[in-house]
Specification:
The chain has 14 helices and 20 strands. It has 414 residues and is of the alpha/beta class. It folds into two domains: 271 residues, Alkaline Phosphatase, subunit A (3-Layer(aba) Sandwich); 96 residues, 2-Layer Sandwich (Gyrase A, domain 2), CATH 3.30.1360.180. Strands 7-6-8-1-9-18-2-19 form an eight-stranded mixed β-sheet, sandwiched between helices. Strands 12-13-15-14 form a four-stranded antiparallel β-sheet, covered by helices on one side. Helix 8 packs parallel to helix 10. The longest helix has 24 residues. The protein is globular, with a radius of gyration of 23 Å. It starts with a helix and ends in a 21-residue tail after the last helix. About 3% of the residues have low confidence.
Length: 414
């Protein structure tokens, strides 16, 4: 009797892990693709055939609202954490960190790869904690060992890698043996944002970049048809683009805002569409605030505790004691920097404005696959809700985040 019990127990020990692996391998797959700076109206504006066909076969949002500030790093990281930038800590592309008395910038390789700057639990970590592998071909945060872990497969950012090579990597990863195959894949492209900045959202070069993005979607969809796996594809962007006029009446000069204030009393961080002041001597905060408040013109200055709640941007120490929000169409510039780099263009592209009052900041959200309903149109929603959707597609219960799983559950097949 005892020997029979031992034999049964050994079989259980063998089969339970095997069943667990089988269950994970039979979960759907998610490929999330980001086209940086792809504005919510580009599909209609530039008549993209592949993306239009993608939309017909899946679900499409009127627009996806980026989180504030509508910049690249904060919003890419929001998409994979479900947290507002004011909560995950990556509050801008460039910011001042009081904890280390230093600046973070997206062009500083050592800091981009430093997990200190990244809060929350990224999707790739969530996936790996649930027994699956993940892969990333360039995504904000994927190059840092957040919580001590990288994605199972990842690449250090190198924008010279041809876009088609990145799509091919998706096919290569999905062709791996089941035990090595990632269930979450994220992939990033910058061309639409690059040209949008240079030529504005209405520029011919921007149109060409949008059409290039469309061709990559066609390549991805065609390649996935040859792979016999239940793959759900989500197309997103981080923000839209606003056409900035090269006219002095739209420039707010930081020298005029700060005139007469002792520079040793504060640290000023200019992010063009918004700005921060970190006061070194708290006793002087009110006097500095009052001087700047009297100079408000096409911008609003707030004490940190008074930043509008709709921005979800007043709790993190990387947000200044005083915070500036610039009106759409205007930007803060330094006279010195403009003098060094005289602009010859009539327009260029800008983003970072408050998405709640600037529809041009609207991003895209399109999804299709075996677990997504076809032909579904959904109203505008905030990008914090993508995280719980991806978790649901992969059969994972996410941690508590700012996003709500109920917002997008209507596009899921039961």
């Amino acid at each position: 009797m005892f020997s029979l019990f031992k034999k049964a127990l050994s079989l259980l020990v063998f089969f339970i892990p095997s069943l667990a692996i089988f269950a994970q391998n039979n979960k759907p797959y998610v490929v999330m693709v980001s086209f940086d700076g792809f504005r919510h109206d580009y599909v209609e504006k530039y008549n993209t055939p592949n993306i239009k066909e993608f939309i017909k076969q899946g679900a499409a949002a009127e627009m996806m609202r980026p989180s504030f500030p509508s910049k690249t790093f904060p919003n890419h990281y929001t998409l994979v954490t479900g947290l507002y930038p004011g909560n995950h800590g990556l509050v801008d592309n460039t910011f001042y960190d009081k904890g280390r008395d230093t600046f973070y910038s997206i062009r500083q390789r050592a800091k981009v790869e430093d997990p200190y700057y990244y809060g929350g639990l990224p999707l790739w970590q969530l996936v790996q904690q649930n027994g699956m592998k993940s892969a990333s071909y360039f995504w904000v945060g994927s190059e840092a060992p957040i919580g001590g872990q990288f994605p199972s497969y990842y690449h250090r950012f190198d924008d010279t890698v041809p876009p088609k090579n990145r799509v091919q990597a998706v096919f290569d990863w999905l062709s791996l043996p089941e035990s090595e195959r990632p269930h979450l894949l994220t992939i990033y492209f910058s061309m639409v944002d690059t040209q949008g900045h240079e030529y504005g959202p209405n520029g011919e070069k921007t149109k060409e970049a949008v059409m290039q993005a469309d061709s990559l979607v066609g390549m991805l969809v065609a390649g996935l048809k040859k792979i016999n796996l239940p793959v759900n594809v989500i197309l997103v962007s981080d923000h839209g683009m606003y056409e900035m006029q090269n006219k002095p009446e739209y420039f707010i000069y930081q020298e005029d805002i700060l005139a007469g204030l002792p520079k040793d009393d504060f640290i000023f961080v200019n992010n063009s569409t918004h700005a921060n002041i970190f006061v070194k001597n708290k006793a002087k905060e009110d006097s500095i605030y009052n001087v700047i408040k009297a100079r408000e013109s096409y911008f609003k200055v707030y004490k940190k505790a008074e930043i509008p709640a709709k921005l979800h941007f007043n709790g993190h120490p990387r947000i200044g004691d005083l915070f500036f929000v610039v009106d759409p169409a205007f930007s803060i510039y330094s006279k010195e920097s403009l003098a060094k780099k005289p602009e010859t263009r009539a327009v260029w592209g800008v983003h970072g404005f408050d998405p709640s009052i600037t529809p041009e900041m609207g991003a895209i959200f399109y999804a299709k696959g075996p677990n997504i309903k076809a032909g579904v149109k959904i109203p505008a929603f905030d990008n914090i809700h993508v995280y719980p959707l991806v978790a649901a597609l992969l059969g994972i219960t996410p941690p508590k985040v700012d996003g709500d799983s109920k917002v997008l559950e209507g596009i899921l097949k039961k």
